[in-house]
Every structure is written in C-alpha cells, then in structure tokens.
Design goal:
With about 170 residues, this protein is α+β, with helices and mostly antiparallel strands. Helices cover about 20% and strands about 40% of the residues.
C-alpha cells in the first residue's frame, strides 16, 4: 500500500479517436459492487502486485472490465493522482484508443458502457460545482450531466483535471 494508508489504484481515461470527433468511454458500475456501486466511472481498479506500473494496471483492468485490447491503446501519460473518500489513491492514465474498439463489458462489473463527446466534457460550461454535507463536513464536488447520466465524484474531478491540462492551465 501507499505511505498515506490509501490503497493504490489506477483507471484508464480512454479517448476514442474518431473521424466525427473524439469521445470518452465511461462505464456505469454494476449495482452489486462493493465500492462505488452504480456510479459512473472510468475502467480501472486496484493496482495488483503483478502490475508493473499504474499504466499496466489500468490496461489490465480495462481489458477485464470492458474488453479493451491493450494493443489498441496508446498511453499519453498520467493525470494528477486523486485521493477518494473511500480510501483509494487513484492514478488516472490517459490513453488514445485507435481503430474501432470491439468492446465487451463484463456484466459482473459493468452495468452499461457509454461514450461522451470529448468537446462536451471539456467545456467548462458543462462542469457544475455542487456542495453537500458528508460526514459533518461540507464538500464541494463537480458534476457533469450528459443525457440521463450524472458524472460526479472522482470521475468528474479527473475530467476537470484533464480539461485543465488540455487548456494548458497546468503546464505553466
């Protein structure tokens, strides 16, 4: 585990490059899962001892969860790690998926899979900030609404981080 007592995890932020524009692939987690059941998330999970790197973990998990062939993914690098309130330290791995992926979600982990246009999630106008009380503290969190999906929590924070990177705000 990590020094801070958080469980190391990694997710893949899969950008599917298409002629009509790039999109992000997201999953809605199965309602039976112990952590973050039913939530919108990127494919990923805890980093296992056999994983050479967070990248290897993210690619392995994406293959297990949505059937993404690691050979179809070009890793672009890492976004900023994120501590979740459930005790994970998540490293988001940014990857470009080329060719049309033939995805097959694992029903035990993934309730459904969908794509959101990259332009939509990167537009600051579509990123709302909300506050709610949690365990006696007011927490601020991001929400992106796409069709009938509410993307929030760690996933929305990662997208906000990606947007800031792509606007060049974090490069100075």
């Amino acid at each position: 585990g990590a020094q801070d007592g958080l469980c190391p995890a990694a997710v893949l932020v899969p950008i599917v490059a298409r002629a009509g524009g790039a999109s992000l692939t997201l999953t809605r987690r199965a309602d039976s899962l112990r952590h973050h059941a039913g939530q919108i998330s990127f494919p990923g999970g805890r980093i296992e001892p056999g994983d050479a790197s967070p990248l290897a973990a993210a690619l392995r998990e994406a293959q297990e969860e949505i059937g993404l062939d690691p050979a179809q993914t070009d890793a672009l690098g890492y976004l900023d790690p994120l501590a979740t309130i459930t005790g994970f330290r998540v490293v988001p791995v940014l990857g470009i998926v080329h060719d049309e992926p033939h995805l097959q979600p694992d029903p035990s982990e993934v309730a459904e899979m969908f794509e959101v246009p990259l332009d939509f999630v990167l537009d600051p106008a579509n990123l709302q900030e909300r506050a709610r009380e949690f365990r006696g503290r007011v927490r601020h969190y991001h929400v992106i609404q796409w069709q009938h999906y509410d993307i929030w929590g760690a996933t929305a924070s990662m997208i906000a981080n990606l947007a800031a990177h792509m606007r060049g705000e974090l490069d100075r």
